[in-house]
Structure prediction request, 1140 residues.
Amino acid sequence: MARFLQYFFNGLSNGAIYSLLALSLVIVYRGSGHLNFAQGEMAMVSAFFAWWYGRSMPIWLAVIAAAVTAFVLGALIERFIIRPIGLRSPFAVVVAAIGLFLGLNALAPFAWRVTNPQPFKSLFPNDAGDFVRIGGATWRYERIGILVVMLVLAALLFLLFQRTKLGLSMRAVASNPESAPLVGIKTGQVLMVSWGLAAFVGAVGGAMVASVNTNVDAAMMFTIFFSAAAAATLGGFDSLGGAVLSGLALGAIENMAAGYFPDLIGQELRFSSSLLIIMIVLLVRPSGLFGSQRVERV
Amino acid sequence: MGRLPVRIGARTPPHWVLRAVGVLAVGWFLLLPIFQDRRPNEYGELTDICILALAALSLNLLIGFTGQISIGHSAFFGVGAYTTAILITDHGWSPGWTFLASAVVCFGVGVLVGIPALRLKGLYLVLVTLALAQIFPALVRKFDWLTGGSRGITGLRYEQPSWTGLPDGRAGRSEWLYWVALAMLAIGYVIVRNLVKSRVGRSMVAVRDNATAAAVMGINVAVTKTVVFGISAGLCGVAGSVFALRQTQANPETQMFTILGSIVFLVIMVIGGAASLLGPIVGAFAYYRFDEFTRALPDKSYLPEFVQDFLTGRPNLATIVFASLLILLMFVAPLGLVGLAKRLARKVLIVIPRLPVAVPVEVGDPDLPPDDLPADDANVALN
Amino acid sequence: MFQKKWLRILALLMSFTLVAAACGGDDDDDSGAPSPTTADDGGDDGDDGDEPSGEWAVDTSVCPDDVEDPIEGTITIGATMPLSGGVAAVAFAPVAAGMQAYIEYANENNLVDGHTLELVIEDDQYNATLTTPAVEKLLDETGVHLFSGMIGTPNNLAVRDLLNDECYPQLFALTGAPAFGDVENFPWTMGGLPPYNTETLVYVEDIKQQFPDGATVAIHAVSSEFGDYYVETMEAAAEEAGLEITTIQRIEAADSNPPTAQITEIAATRPDVILAVPLGAQCPTFTNELANAKAANAGWEPRLYITSTCASPLILGIAGASADGLFTITSGIDVADPKNAELPQVVEYREFMLSQGFAADGDFATAAAGWNTAVATVQVLIDALAESGEVSRASIINAARSLDFHPDLFRDGISISTNGDADGFPIESFQVIQWSAESKTYTDIGDIHTEFEGTTRVE
Prediction:
């Protein structure tokens, strides 16, 4: 039981980060129907912002400031790169996003002239003894904190989408982008807000990764992005709740698979095995667990 | 002839002349080595371009013509490379024959992936192909008795046969591999072209544009999609085979066997022009030269002093320029370079398609907006 | 460009340049044995069974005719390095600068008599696919005479056949893969970093001294060729050394999740020793996770050996207190350590780098790796000129196969030595060092291990 709990806690820790980034991907997808290949790298650059701000202000303030910066950058990217290209050709958007992915990855070291990973202060109590013991398994405060932050953000997003006028507009654009303008919704603004919001959530995710890893590094989001994309797909790509649950489930599944089958799967095939499971789920439910059936725009 | 654009009818003598000129131009370009002495490294670069073009061509068949998106082609590329590497080192095959084996093996793998892919579309299909790209290098490491594991297989080469009369040593070998790569690209091009222009091709486009409608019209959507997936994978596998010979090794850490390889193929396909036959070839050429040009940039001596000072200690300039140009290109040529060329050409010359109902070409609606022309036939000469 | 493998190479380069308290008193040295510094250059210790024989000569009968043609005037050295392409570039740019700077230094001081040196570096973005065209370009367009300091295992492997066919020296390939000492099959190719398998054997030796009655060992290693060398060497050596391997936990090279799961498994077996082989940014993450696990398992204090690729003070500095007390190895002097700032060779090095336009706040430690590579390359050219009276590709590789000299930025007692086909690995002697998180410096542990000179196995 202790072993099971330990895998479970470890899984939730990784999973909470997948969920955060998966939420970003879902918000963008609901808004403009794109898979933002650069979402992970945007989060990485945001984490660098948090590190940079953190040199002159408390770390939590720095993270919030970085997330706000990310919001602005995300909105600008939507307005000046994604939207104009998207109007021209759907394939071109994919390549533009790949361009962003390459460019942003190269930009952080260029902009800050850093030649190595940089130290990142922990966001939660993180001394050696800062953990709870449940049923023989340990769970660190930091990992619990990340889970809580993720759940709170997800709840706020839910309220935003369900209870505010802005959220209503965003849902309208998501469900029918053609007719939303007919009822007076400013689609352009909604899209900018969607991308900004996604970047905001991603920035928080990036800061969490940096906190757990104790450093920021240009390569920090590369694999996590793909895990998050897998979680978003499993959840159904347009469902916020799906993203949260799938992210957590993905983390738990991959940790158990690697833990209980060390020789067959192990850490080497951890991600591959979870992708296989998702593949099987998709064959049964081609729109993911919580996704709505709708025409793809890709 | 004072007013532009000039209009000519399809399959009229002027059109044939234009086509002939186009074919000669492309042919001259590709066969240039016959007329010129080239250094071995230039053959090497052309070989790389042919390999990339063939891989992008295979992806274009799938994405451009059937609308199925794959970011897993790096795996087929890798399977092809490993098939060649293993057959040469473990079974003593002559490299030439391994291409055929790669095509068959990858066709099989492609069909196997294509069947489950039938149920999925859009991003859900992207994820399945992502799984493929992710799993391939891990499996190579896992099955080390076959693949050499993380150390890979080294020492591959393709000696020029004596009948070619090519010189001994590297010069002849480089040229030989170029001809092999060019031949594979040409075969791939012919296969794709015939497929696209045939009944099957029309089924593919019908499936892409509306699968339900296609099924109603009696097209077997499942078979069409699966077979196309297999052919696409087979072509990509052959590209991987040539790649293994070019690299002289197959190694799981090779970037082209990871998701990054798939991304390169995708970028080439789009900057060339999705759903255009020549697109992948133009795209591969542009991508390769573009990349070469940006990597040569760090020689900054021609820049003003204050810019040089700013750049001191700041790496990655080449990548940032490359990425920016990529985004800029998508503004200028969202339908790829071939699309851009067509658009520009249409300002000079329009080929009026011959419509099923015999309409005299001269009477063609003068206000017909160029974009309403069927893209393929509005092309100038190059097809 | 996102593979982190480059990081290990970078870090290994850096480890060249590390130093423990060469001048200071080693008061926190818990082995109780201050490091004796060998008196002079050369490293010709008695147990160094590696005397250059001078008899080995490359077989030129299979080479193009020009292989023995003397090179007049400018000698052009080619290399491929990642200068762009994401994270790789960041890390390696100083290597190129350091290498370039020493070539300038050699020219200014006319080190290779009658010859000017030119270094041409092509950017391959750490992508082996781009290495082949880059090297071919250097051969056919630039017209280089030899290659030195090319970065990366697959990158060097990609052109190894080519350069051996064409008989061009491929010197000091910046990889520690033990395949790069295979003189018999690849006479023109030579590695330039400490071989990974020998590094592991140094750790085994140290563990044997610490635990004469045997010990339990857990391994944490990246899942790649690099990690495989450590795992396989440890597995092969364990039984004879009385070690029991309790668990082997792997991690994907690009995995940026913390290795919580792996360390949970390791902690469950409570080993006496951990051998850790993470990559780059994974290093501080690993030590942090290990500290967490130790807190959750009271009384468990494993002795941690970490790959020298993690040894850069820049990387361990991030890890803070969690890295305190770990062990690793080095061969070089840390030019960034304030304690070494007064050493004449360090002063000269820094001054020359600055005069070459290197940023005053630049990464001198990484640049020193490039500098050292160039030092060794220039030494080869000097030897070639001295031994045969002229510089040709053949005389260059012959000189490279009978090296024995001490670079200024190496530790006393450690030399670069090769010996025909008996020893194809230039660096095989190491000092075991221990990290102090408080002072952010290393302390020497025991004597320099020279017993592995000439023994590295080609794998």
User: Anything to note?
Assistant: Residues 364-388 of chain C form the longest helix (25 residues). Residues 14-53 of chain C have pLDDT under 50 and may be disordered. The CA atoms of residues 375 and 407 of chain C lie 7 Å apart. Chain C is about 35% helix and 15% strand.
